[in-house]
């Protein structure tokens, strides 16, 4: 049987970098790792609860697109300082009310910091090409599945967005679970272009997430062979 490995961890040090940058003593490592996860969960929940829609008339390739998609959250820690950089695609909510909203988000995140005397800063960075990012493409696909779009049509539209708007060299989309309420769980996938997973120097971006539909939870995996850095 094939041995599967995460494409991001496989390429650390070549085309991928760590999303958490800090050093910790062995006895405090688990606590600091859990703190990172809590910070990311707080930020994602805050943005999901305040997400603003583009509007019913704004569509891209016949797909209704929302705003404020999170690409990744980078956390840097030193002894008394924590810096959080949120890389986003199509930011609107946090940009329009930036001083007030960032302050509100900062106060929410500070509740999960273990040492309250550390200084926390949060900044927003907009990525250049959001439609080539697998996390954003997964969110677009999940939004279509929640709206009860046919899974195969949703997968094709997601690939079309990455190809025409993101100019990706290759993309693979995979769904797993009780797709459209089938009795037995299965796996469906589509691929367009070249996705060379065995070449380490190839810039492959990867995302694995889940979406809740009326038929149950589906797993989403997306591999993107980017044309360049986003």
From TrEMBL:
GO terms for molecular function: RNA binding; structural constituent of ribosome. Keywords: Chloroplast, Plastid, Ribonucleoprotein, Ribosomal protein, RNA-binding. The keyword Chloroplast applies. One of its GO terms (biological process) is translation. GO terms for cellular component: cytosolic small ribosomal subunit. Gene3D superfamilies: 3.30.300.20, Ribosomal protein S3, C-terminal domain (3.30.1140.32). Residues 141-224 form the Small ribosomal subunit protein uS3 C-terminal domain. Pfam families: Ribosomal_S3_C. HAMAP family: Ribosomal_uS3_B. NCBIfam families: rpsC_bact (TIGR01009). Belongs to the universal ribosomal protein uS3 family. This is Small ribosomal subunit protein uS3c. It comes from Geranium endressii. The lineage of its organism: Eukaryota, Viridiplantae, Streptophyta, Embryophyta, Tracheophyta.
């Amino acid at each position: 049987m094939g041995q599967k490995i995460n494409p991001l961890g496989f390429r650390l040090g070549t085309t991928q970098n760590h999303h958490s940058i800090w050093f910790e003593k062995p006895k405090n490592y688990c606590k600091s790792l859990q703190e990172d996860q809590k910070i990311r969960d707080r930020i994602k929940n805050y943005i999901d609860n305040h997400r603003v829609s583009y509007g019913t008339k704004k569509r891209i390739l016949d797909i209704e697109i929302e705003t404020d998609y999170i690409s990744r959250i980078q956390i840097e820690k030193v002894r008394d300082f924590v810096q959080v950089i949120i890389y986003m695609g199509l930011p609107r909510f946090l940009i329009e009310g930036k001083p007030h909203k960032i302050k509100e988000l900062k106060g929410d995140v500070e509740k999960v910091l273990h040492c309250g005397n550390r200084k926390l800063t949060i900044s927003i960075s907009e990525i250049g090409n959001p439609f080539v990012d697998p996390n954003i493409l997964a969110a677009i696909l999940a939004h279509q599945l929640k709206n009860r779009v046919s899974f195969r049509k949703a997968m094709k539209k997601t690939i079309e967005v990455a190809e025409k708007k993101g100019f990706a060299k290759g993309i693979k989309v995979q769904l797993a679970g009780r797709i459209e309420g089938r009795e037995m769980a299965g796996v469906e996938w589509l691929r367009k272009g070249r996705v060379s997973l065995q070449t380490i120097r190839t810039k492959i971006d990867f995302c694995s997430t889940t979406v809740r539909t009326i038929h149950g939870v589906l797993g989403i995996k997306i591999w993107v062979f980017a044309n360049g850095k986003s």
